[in-house]
Design brief:
This protein is of the alpha/beta class. It has 3 domains: 66 residues; 44 residues; 220 residues, Alpha-Beta Barrel (TIM Barrel), CATH 3.20.20.80. It has 8 helices and 13 strands. It has an 8-stranded mixed beta barrel. Strand 10, helix 8 and strand 11 form a beta-alpha-beta unit.
Length: 362
């Protein structure tokens, strides 16, 4: 075979080989294309199933009352408006109910602010957050009820609490038949020893001081004394406390020696412009002098006294005699004596008299 014939054969073999490779390559490409198409078909089928499932779930959610985010936000806004309107209507209804029930506007307002002490004075309302720096008395609204004799009785479940019944008296009660007062079940009497005038500041001894102290003591009624203060500085506080100490020196005083701190409710009163710091300084001088003399000091006042005139936390070192008429007591802090009415009635005393209860006595 010559060389030309060999070259042609080799060339045909090469071409045949190339054709086979091309066919194989094209077959592989076709197979890959088919596989890719199958994958796409499967993926599309999965996506369609997922879409159908999501649509079905959305249809179910919608049928069950679910909402879109925008719809939900609108519902929240409407609910908020409705809640605010309901709250306003509820507050209005509560105030209306209390006013129609005979309660004062102050009492109705106080019910709206249970975490604050609300005080009405000179046509304004003042709000004082209830402090945890002072020990609270811990009594509930239902712990005290009025008994047949007009005195409050403790009906709570604390067995350590005992109640003593008392009156506080001055010349306004006139001649008192103390034997009848004792027979009426009175345990103690707080007798006014004296006072300072609200305008001129003159010191005065109560006209019935001796008669009341001696009459109560002779009939087995424990006695305490109080002084109506109008002191405006330390010097006058010392004058008042020295006067009361001189007056009680001959007697057995079992209950506290009290400074009476009240607003004179007059623009001409000498204490009208006294600051809280000045009131508290007068109280401190009075009470510390009483304590140093061997007696128990006490501060008397109403809710206004322990908020507007003084800060309750600043006189918390002393025993407290709170004046609040009616139940439940609108005063959260500890107290030792509660004057709960100014229109009480006790056999042996003509006319109205202040009634008091002492917690656990003295």
């Amino acid at each position: 075979m010559n060389n030309n014939t060999l070259d042609r054969g080799e060339r045909r073999g090469v071409r045949n080989t190339q054709n086979i490779i091309s066919i194989i390559f094209l077959s592989l490409v076709a197979l890959m294309a088919l596989s890719f198409s199958i994958v796409l078909l499967i993926r599309n089928a999965n996506l369609q199933r997922q879409e159908d499932a999501v649509k079905s779930e959305l249809d179910a959610l919608n049928a069950e009352g679910y909402y879109t985010e925008i719809e939900a936000q609108k519902l929240v806004e409407n609910a908020k408006i409705e809640a605010e309107e309901n709250a306003r209507n509820s507050i209005k209804a509560m105030i209306q109910e209390k006013l129609e029930g005979g309660e004062s506007a102050t009492s109705a307002i106080r019910a709206l602010f249970p975490d604050q002490i609300v005080v009405a004075s000179s046509g304004r309302y003042y709000f004082f957050p209830i402090s945890d720096q002072i020990k609270h008395h811990g009594f509930s609204e239902d712990d005290f009820v009025e008994g047949e004799d007009g005195f409050l009785e403790y009906v709570g479940d604390d067995p350590s609490v005992s109640i003593k019944k008392g009156v506080d008296v001055s010349r306004f009660q006139g001649n008192i038949k103390w034997d009848k007062v004792k027979a009426a079940g009175i345990d103690f009497a707080i007798v006014r020893a004296g006072l300072r005038g609200t305008t001129e500041g003159k010191l005065l001894t109560d006209d019935y001081f001796e008669d009341n102290v001696e009459g109560a003591t002779e009939n087995g009624i424990d006695v305490g004394v109080y002084f109506y203060s109008q002191a405006v500085n330390e010097k006058e506080a010392k004058e008042e406390v020295q006067m009361i100490l001189d007056l009680i020196e001959p007697y057995e005083i079992a209950y506290p020696v009290v400074i009476d701190v009240e607003s004179a409710e007059s623009d001409t009163a000498r204490t009208a412009n006294l600051s809280s710091d000045e009131y508290e300084k007068v109280v401190e001088v009075f009470c510390e002098t009483v304590r140093n003399a061997g007696y128990t000091p006490m501060v008397y006042g109403n809710v206004k006294s322990f908020t507007l005139l003084m800060d309750a936390v600043d006189v918390d070192d002393y025993d407290i005699w709170i004046a609040y008429y009616g139940t439940p007591l609108y005063y959260p802090y500890h107290f030792n004596i509660w004057q709960f009415t100014s229109s009480g009635s006790v056999d042996g005393i003509d006319g109205d008299v202040d009634l008091n209860i002492a917690i656990n006595g003295y």
